[in-house]
Amino acid sequence: MTSAAPARHVLDPTGKDVYGEIERFRADGPMVRVEMPGGRPAWVVLGYAEAVELLKVRNRNPLVSKDIAHWADFVAGRVPEGWPLLMWAVKAGMFTADPPRHRDLRSWAAPAFTPRRIERLAPVIEQIVADRLDVMATAAAAADGRVMDLRAEFCLPVPIETIGALLGVPDDLAGTFLLGADALFDTAITPDVAQARFGALLGAIETMVDRKVADPGVDLTSDLVKTLGKKDAYTREVLLETVRLTIVAGYETTGNLIDQAVFALLTHPEHLAAVRAGEVSWDAVIDETLRWAGVAGNLPLRFAVKAFELGGAQIQAGDAILVSYVGTGRDPRKFDRPDAFDPTRATRDHLGFGHGTHYCLGAPLAVLEAKVALPALFDRYPGLRLAEDPGTIPANPGFITNGHARLPVHLGTTRA
């Protein structure tokens, strides 16, 4: 396996200007050679059609694999221990598995995300949202109208508490889960900090699993524990990774969805008015948010199984590949006025939850959380408005997900 030519661009590990970066990269085409943290080269897929082609299921003749054994740099020893993205590629579970093993692992967790199970979670999510809004009201009254960070107080707590309820996370472990999930997405922190927080997260997951073995409940973790060993793939190691993946996939990305939808509506008051008047659906807002502000950012990692041509680029066997879901959502070859937020547009196509074999299993849960949280927020606070110039609100750290570092707002008038 050989590595392709040196990268033309450096992928900013802080992710501070993701949209500007995408436009600079796109000048070189839909497939761009970049340098990841630590100097490791990779391709970034920016084109919608190229991403769909790359992510197609090809059981007999795959172009790419999730198996790190196909990465030339890793096999050659050029990836140091502690490299910040390594944890996205080496853990044994759904995220890194190829068919047919991926199907077995996906089927293990799938019962937690059936329409009936998701429907049963609806009242739990409604209560979580109502409680967060009450906490915000109390905090706002105590702060005498000062600026509130809606991301910290609402956008992120709703999904992490929902995931906690789904998995049965004990209260005493919730803080460790939160810090560990944050570390996985922050590509700007030091490797030592990332490893420490990630290690603490894995330890907390093991503790939770041990408790469920001793005293199972009515949650996803308990269901997985009860079926350990029923298939060769259903091992304790894979169970731990399935729990970790559920936390990772369901936490910050869903928080970013709520964050970006609020930001989009507050910066496009004409569309907010249309939603409030019932002229535009919350489903349309959510789909357009997922296209306009892809919440998954640059998702690592896939590896070329063989040499192939895509989007004018010559991919070599062993090359690493990231998919820019922000870039695919703003592909001008696919979307008219791609940079415009417009929930009335005719097409709702987006790759916000991926495509193909690894399409997000928890997508219906994420959509439900947003559909509960957004109308409840705007109904409770009809005077909600941004407290800073939108252009000065920074992005969240790292290039893996796409949200804001903070979402400063004035809550305005409260509706009882």
TrEMBL record:
Pfam families: p450. The keyword RNA-binding does not apply. InterPro entries: Cyt_P450 (IPR001128), Cyt_P450_B (IPR002397), Cyt_P450_CS (IPR017972), Cyt_P450_sf (IPR036396). It comes from the Bacteria. Keywords: Heme, Iron, Metal-binding, Monooxygenase, Oxidoreductase. Belongs to the cytochrome P450 family. This is Cytochrome P450. It comes from Promicromonospora vindobonensis.
